[in-house]
Amino acid sequence: MATVIIPTPLRKFTENNARLETDAATVGSALQSLSEKYPDLRRHLFDDTGNIRPFLNIFVGEDDIRDRNQGDTLLESNTVLSIVPAIAGG
Prior knowledge:
The protein is an alpha+beta fold. The protein has a 5-stranded mixed sheet, with helices on one face.
């Protein structure tokens, strides 16, 4: 199973879980599964058209999914999937 790391700002939507396990085959299906289990999380992961929000940085291991196959990036057993929201500041 892959492990999904939930960032602190989103933990309030996952019953304060910092790590969740998934048997999903791809990043997109893992995020979809999370949003089904935790419906309030959905709007933070996906836009109105169902695409992964562009301001989320999502890594499989150390690789940004933008450099791989986006939501179709494969997850293997023992993979770590990290969700990192962009932080704006001035």
